[in-house]
Design a protein that fits this description.
The protein is mostly helical and 500 residues long. 73% of the residues lie in helices and 0% in strands. The chain has a single domain, classed as Growth Hormone, Chain: A. Helix 2 packs antiparallel against helix 8, helix 2 packs parallel to helix 9 and helix 14 packs antiparallel against helix 21.
């Protein structure tokens, strides 16, 4: 498709959007499904956290490292060149190609023979997933007129939490399948011969989960390629908007001088810091502190929490659109209100010993927490011209990735290890940390000797304290969003003025 807005005067895209209403919704839902797949493949690692920790004998700091800096750095580094390509090339093709990359790499995670191989395959997932959100956001702004974008981007952003729901349901269920049962099922459908060399007795459920969840992405990429159209760039913006291809430095000159971009980016980064830290250790927390199984942690608690978080994402976009006439900057400051509600709710959920009370508080916290997601895209795209949107979002996501995904899980894991060692030191058991085997906690705690109960208790309580400490970062994020709200109206993109 052409990269201009020729003919827009005859078809007022800034009023109608691109294509029919039904087709716009189809594309939006398709992109939301892609974003959902993105987060299924990203999140499934956290669903099967404890089995992987047990398989490779990892401590919480190592687990935080696996989920943090390597993934974040490659996600961030690849995001900018892919976004620059998206500001010039066919965005539908770029998204489809990246889906295939991250899907294959997710499947390969199930074949990892060591911690190092798992780390390398996760880096491959990061490279592929870097090509999802920037071009997708750019597409949405060309399909939908300005008045409909907050809600459209809120719907698209639901992919984060819907992906979390499906990752919990599929990951928790599939990971509970034993290797021999999987081999028997494949034989029953006539595919056993393809895997005749596999010793199913030694195949762990978490490995099956990665392969089964990863590969279907290839089919979704093909469907997107054949059914989604590439719209003219800037089609749904006012005719006076000047649309052309922007280089990185031109785009940087446009958003870099606007305070809203930086306070928004830092706010989103610190929310992600907490979010990635919590989700990385959510399943281990439930299993260690409350003694539930992997399947229960994922299906009974993880999936419902992800579902209510999806509702929070939708609610944030919905409220922003409904309140925009009365409060023009609401999209920028509303997330801060949600975060201030989430802090005491999360803290109570982690500190109580009642699982039912914890779950109820966790539901409130998740809704309030995830109301921010649509805002980061609504505000981020509103302060720049159409030609710079993909690059702007990619830089925003770079900041989010480096601070949020890069440091959040590592911080939570390091704090958990720190609190555990501190507890053991007070009990005179610090020397036993080096030989501690987490897989023995539970039914096999007797194998840890007389110190077993104390070791396993410190293992659980260290993580509990770490989760609470991580939530306190929301105070910084809320301040950033309030500051963004103060400058948002001044920094909005005005088609009648120069964009740089």
């Amino acid at each position: 498709m052409t990269d201009t807005i020729a003919g827009q005067a005859a078809q007022p895209g800034h009023i109608t959007g691109f294509g029919s209403k039904g087709y716009r919704m189809y594309v939006l839902l398709s992109l939301m499904m892609v974003y959902t797949l993105n987060f299924i493949d990203r999140t499934v690692l956290t669903v099967v956290a404890q089995p992987i920790i047990n398989t490779f004998g990892l401590d919480d700091a190592q687990w935080g490292l696996l989920n943090g800096p390597p993934f974040a750095m490659f996600y961030a580094l690849m995001g900018i060149p892919i976004a620059m390509w998206a500001d010039r090339g066919n965005r539908v093709f770029i998204i489809g190609l990246c889906i295939i990359i991250w899907s294959v790499m997710t499947a390969l995670c199930g074949l990892a023979a060591s911690f190092v191989w798992l780390l390398l395959f996760r880096i491959g997932v990061a490279i592929g997933e870097a090509g999802c959100t920037p071009p997708a956001n750019s597409l949405v702004t060309d399909y939908f007129p300005p008045k409909s974008r907050a809600n459209a981007l809120g719907i698209y952003s639901m992919g984060v939490t819907l992906g979390g729901v499906l990752a919990q349901l599929f990951g928790g269920t599939i990971a509970s399948i034993k290797g021999p049962a999987m081999g028997g099922w494949l034989s029953s459908i006539g595919l056993g011969g393809l895997f005749s060399g596999v010793n199913w007795e030694g195949v762990e459920g978490w490995r099956i989960a990665f392969v089964v969840i990863g590969l279907p992405g290839v089919l979704i990429a093909l469907i997107l390629w054949f059914t989604a159209k590439e719209p003219p760039r800037g089609y749904s913006d006012p005719p006076s908007a000047h649309v052309e291809k922007a280089g990185f430095f031109e785009a940087f000159a446009e958003f870099g001088r606007k305070p809203t971009f930086w306070t928004l980016s830092l706010g989103a980064a610190f929310v992600a810091f907490v979010g990635y830290g919590l989700i990385t250790f959510q399943a281990p927390f439930l299993m260690r502190v409350h003694g539930v199984s992997l399947h229960e942690a994922a299906v009974n608690y993880g999936a419902p929490l992800a579902a209510v978080a999806a509702f929070g994402t939708f609610l944030g976009g919905f409220l922003s659109e409904k309140l925009a006439d009365r409060f023009p900057s609401v999209a920028a400051w509303l997330p801060a209100v949600g975060l201030l509600i989430a802090i005491p709710a999360y803290s109570g959920a982690f500190l109580t010993n009642s699982l039912s009370v914890a779950f109820a508080l966790w539901v409130v916290a998740a809704i309030a927490h995830y109301a921010y997601l649509g805002a980061q895209y609504t505000v981020g795209t509103a302060i720049v011209s159409p030609r710079s949107r993909a690059t702007t979002i990619s830089v925003l996501l770079l900041v989010v990735a480096l601070i949020g995904n890069g440091i959040g899980p590592l911080f939570t894991g390091w704090m958990s290890k720190h609190f555990m060692i501190s507890s053991l030191t007070k009990q005179g058991l610090a020397d036993q940390f080096a030989t501690f085997e987490p897989k023995l906690c539970g039914a096999n705690v007797a194998q840890l000797g007389d110190a077993g109960p104390a070791l396993c208790s410190a293992y659980a309580e260290g993580l509990r304290q770490s989760m609470v400490a991580t939530v306190m970062i929301f105070f910084i994020a809320a301040l950033c969003y309030f500051l963004a709200g103060r400058t948002f109206q001044r920094d909005r993109y005005n088609p009648g003025t120069s964009s740089v």
